[in-house]
Amino acid sequence: MNRNKYLPFWLITLAVMIGLPLVTLIQDGMFMDAMLYTSVAHNQAHGFGTFWFPQFSKLNLDLPGFNSFHEQPPLAFGIESLFFRVLGNSMYVERFYVLVTMCLTAWLIYRLWQEVYKNEVTLRRLGWLPLLLWITIPTVFWGCSNNVNENTMGIFTLASVLVSFRLLQRDARNLFAWMLVGLLIFLATFTKGFPGFFPIVVPVVYWFATRRISAGRAFGYSTLLLAVPLAIYGILFLVPESRDSLSIYLFKRALLRITSDPTTSNRFASLVNLFMDLLPQLGLLLIIVLVARAKKIKAAYTGGQGGLILFFLLTGLSATAPLMLTMVQKAFYLLPGFPFFAIGTGMLLAPYISRFTEKMQTGSKGFRIFRGISVLLLCSAITVVGLQAGKVGREKDVLHDVYAIGKLLPEHSVIGINQRDFYIDWELQCYLMRYFFISVDFKPGKPLTYFILDKSLKTDTDLSRYKKMELGLEKYDLYKLEP
């Protein structure tokens, strides 16, 4: 089949991949967790904090028992810090990092699709389809515009599934390759913790869905995939520095948060979020199937594709369903599972899409118009994204004040703040630290030179020795201690 038939589809997919996430990513301002993690990586690049003991600010999160930042394992911070070391301090460095993770994820999805259809040229050329289904998931294009750790973890989990799938399809008993998969799983857990373990079940899921390997071999592979990361962690726990760091994360943060710091009251919140995110894809699938039936077009799933579709859908569930075991659930925790749902849904749609493309004539007027529209969409997406450069996407008033304060105070300054504001106003703290290395402190040993207060709030702090500065701030007032 003429490759030119697929060019408009690729251009449209590229336009969507540029337009949906980058229109937000290129603007100043980012989700609080994303700015928190960015600040930690940025600090590490500048010698404030180490790989095993990262630092966010002077007080970090003010948690008892440790004075470093251990909300996540250290790998993602270490990787991103290398970007800052090489590329500098621009706000576009973290945005470039997010873009790199998006591109790597897209490439791995494409490679997995090619592996599925390595013997079917026509369907293999629909590699744009899973990418389009993936990037149009609302939480996905939101995640691709925010520096959340799931973006990094998803690369390792997706790569591990890709290698596992290749080995299982070939029935390869390559011990070294399976150990490589185990290493990728370790890297995923070293980025995000327990959620990174889900690829250990891939061999069992493959057996259940396809029955192409024996149950004994499937469980044997899964046991090996669990043993490799556990062995690496065992070695790390023999080294004092890594043992202390990982112990804080595991026992004082991860397990403690699971048991005592819920983010939802509904155990099935992740299931609801998953359904809502996949609703557009499910709707598209339903429409295409109904249209195909109306036109008496039948889908032909050959070569055991039905089993592989089930495999990818179950792999997606293995990445998302375990989140419901705890009450710590957020929509973006689902991100690593979405590539597999996109591939599975794409495989369901592929025979119908293939029948449609078979009838397309590249020399026809309709195709030339279609191709022109795709070029126009791509150019429009690039233009719209470019026009957003230099704009502020969120927390405009906070960023306005942060930049004004940053011009006045030297780097590594510490500003006084209300205790309540310290535990609530993370946007202020993250922007101050990321752009100017400025910390806030609600319990200084002596009065600090500066004190910041939200204009809409009152404080019990004695400000009689302070004078309000006239800086034209929008959300806050900055006070200076009088001599």
From TrEMBL:
Annotated localization: Cell membrane
Keywords: Cell membrane, Glycosyltransferase, Membrane, Transferase, Transmembrane, Transmembrane helix
Domain Glycosyltransferase RgtA/B/C/D-like as annotated: residue spans: 72-230
GO molecular function: pentosyltransferase activity
This protein's record includes keyword Acetylation: no
InterPro entries per the UniProt record, alphabetical: LipidA_mod_glycosyltrf_83 (IPR050297), RgtA/B/C-like (IPR038731)
Main location as per UniProt: membrane
Protein name, UniProt field: Dolichyl-phosphate-mannose-protein mannosyltransferase
Source species of the chain: Taibaiella chishuiensis
